[in-house]
Amino acid sequence: MVPGPRIDLEVGDTVEVLITNELPVGTDIHWHGIDVPNGQDGVSPITQDLVASGETYAYRFTVNETAIGMYHAHAHAHVAVPNGLFGTLYVGDVSIPAGQTISGIDVPADIELAQDIPMVLNDAGVIGLTLNAKSFPATEPIVVDEGDWIRVTYFNEGLQAHPMHLHAFEQLVIAKDGEPLDAPYAADTILIAPGERYTVLIHADTAGTWVWHCHILNHAESADGMFGMVTALIVQ
To answer: Which of 91, 115, 136 is the last residue of a domain?
Structure first.
């Protein structure tokens, strides 16, 4: 499956991940944005040897702080990651600025999230221009009820920066790379560079089907119409 399974952990959890390499080349796993001991960082030949084809290797570490990260191959990464060796990883819960007003938008003190959604951006390899490894019209729309609050984290596993634009709604940027911002802000379009993660709140307070896309236009439109890095927010 692409992306790989979302991994949800709590602060203090001890983790063991077994990787069995069925590729024709050596590989490894890097825990991007997650604090781990040097020997578990997953970067051959710096912190470990390659996990050879047919071998199994165990990563073991304890997560000691809240984080939002990615796990992906580091060896042959220019080929491996654009072809699907990546996933998302959450440790604990990034704090929500409940009870605050952000750029004129009130975040309720008793806010309840209807959904917490990872959106992985990619642009190369067999995956190509995709959101969560799907290209429009195969992208899965996000369906919410009018009035819902949702939280979305963008993960850029691609080779280019992507300006992500949502029609009709402000995106309240509350965290970057898993770190809560001291001064959250509202944005119409958010530029996510390779390796970055941005976490946003969205108040879906207007009914309709609203387009959500990368604003590099040839990542979203062609002579045949919409394709690539496009999805929809359906507010019903």
So the answer is: 91
Sheet holding 113-124, edge to edge: 128-131, 113-124, 148-156, 197-204, 171-176, 179-187
Residue 65 counted as domain residue: yes
Q: What angle do CA 204, 144, 6 make, to 5 degrees?
A: 110
- What global pTM score does this model have? 0.95
Total number of domains in the chain = 2
3-state class of 126 per DSSP? coil
Residue 23, token pair as written in the block = 């590729």
How would you write the pLDDT of the chain (236 residues) with one tens digit per residue? 999 999 999 999 999 999 999 999 999 999 999 999 999 999 999 999 999 999 999 999 999 999 999 999 999 999 999 999 999 999 999 999 999 999 999 999 999 999 999 999 999 999 999 999 999 999 999 999 999 999 999 999 999 999 999 999 999 999 999 999 999 999 999 999 999 999 999 999 999 999 999 999 999 999 999 999 999 999 99
The CATH number that applies at residue 179 is 2.60.40.420
> Is residue 65 domain-shared with residue 141, that is, in the same domain?
no
